Amino acid sequence: MNDTAKDNRKNIGEVFLSAKGLCRDFGSGKSKTVAVNNVDFEFRRGEIISIVGESGSGKTTLAKMVLGLLSSSAGEIIFEGKPRDISTQSKRRLYWQNIQAIFQDPFSTYNIFNKVDEVLMDCIRLKSGRLQSGRLQGGGNLSKEEKFERMKDACSFVNLKFEELSNKYPFELSGGQMQRLMIARIFMLKPKLLIADEPTSMIDACSRATILDMMLKLRDEIDMTIVFITHDIGLAYYISDTVYIMEHGVIVEQGTADQAILHPTSDYTKRLLGDVPKIYEPWDFRAG
Ligand SMILES: Nc1ncnc2c1ncn2[C@@H]1O[C@H](COP(=O)(O)OP(=O)(O)OP(=O)(O)O)[C@@H](O)[C@H]1O
Ligand SMILES: [Mg+2]
């Protein structure tokens, strides 16, 4: 991974998704939790954003609100210049054609009763908008051969062999293969925004670098915006154009990766950085 996101900053486009005063509470009275508290953000085309914070800081709650899986207690989300409207099933479907997510647990992405070829075929159907009564139907005007070509292409993009996997169920894949299959889905769906919630937590460091590489490549190929949600401030510095640091539901630091991480203003960011002393210096292997 020689090209960091920062090298590509010049490719960042206009704002297409933003939020103002976003809040989300859970429970009430003494047991009330303010999971997301007055959050503003602006995501641009082709931008790589990291949201960093400790466990319980509200990252996943914020992601679910952006995805439209959780309602907000206050605030608004603006999508492509207009207040986001996901009030009906068909409006939600349209919105979801633009936005995809990868969650901590890859199993949650798949219907476990669908084999790999069905998982990928669903992407072709979703892409061609052929959703009827909540179920995926048909596959657009593509011939059977064209559909197979698309599925094979997506697998080879992530170094998987379609022929070896097509007849397997997701639970028969290794953790790394499952993660790659998730990226293959994204390659086929080509969303405008990908939210990746700790996407590499299940795999070893080497596969993790490969997966990150694939995501960055995908960003370059389809001008996708990526939001990484992570505890790892070093990773955030390395891959991001823009970093948001979240503490107890509040964004306490925000800026370019250099601003937020090399020149932090909040005590919280400084404390997180205290755990990773050499974030931007080359490692000196002679020391110690
Ligand atoms: N469905 C829910 N009901 C009640 N409380 C919730 C719910 N979901 C999240 N919370 C609370 O909201 C807060 C933020 O949770 P969230 O899952 O967003 O944190 P996170 O930053 O993603 O943490 P992690 O890094 O551990 O994944 C936590 O205090 C959590 O207990
Ligand atoms: Mg989380």
Task: Give a structural overview.
This protein is an alpha/beta fold. The protein folds into two domains: 1-98 and 192-288, P-loop containing nucleotide triphosphate hydrolases (Rossmann fold, 3-Layer(aba) Sandwich); 111-190, no CATH class. The protein has helices spanning 59-67, 89-96, 116-127, 144-157, 162-165, 175-189, 205-222, 233-239, 257-262, 267-274, and strands at 15-26, 33-44, 48-52, 74-79, 82-83, 99-102, 131-132, 135-136, 193-197, 225-230, 242-247, 250-256. The strands form three sheets. The protein has a six-stranded mixed beta sheet, sandwiched between helices. The chain is globular. Residues 59-60, 197 line the site of magnesium ion.
Features:
six-stranded mixed β-sheet; 288 residues; alpha/beta; 2 domains; four-stranded antiparallel β-sheet; 24% strand; binds adenosine-5'-triphosphate; Rossmann fold; single chain; binds magnesium ion; globular
Give the gist of this structure:
The protein is α/β, with parallel strands linked by helices.
Average pLDDT across residues?
84
Main beta sheet, described? 6 strands, mixed
Radius of gyration: 20 Å
Mind telling me the CATH class of the largest domain? Alpha Beta
The coarse silhouette is: globular
CATH superfamily of the largest domain: P-loop containing nucleotide triphosphate hydrolases
* Overall strand count: 12
CATH topology of the largest domain: Rossmann fold
Bound molecules: adenosine-5'-triphosphate, magnesium ion
Q: Unreliable runs, pLDDT <50, ≥5 residues?
A: 131-138
CATH architecture call of the largest domain? 3-Layer(aba) Sandwich
**Largest beta sheet: strand ordering:** 6-9-10-3-11-12
Distance between the termini: 27 Å
> In percent terms, what proportion of residues is strand?
15-25%
Q: How many domains? A: 2
Class based on secondary structure composition and strand pairing? alpha/beta
Distinct helical segment count: 10
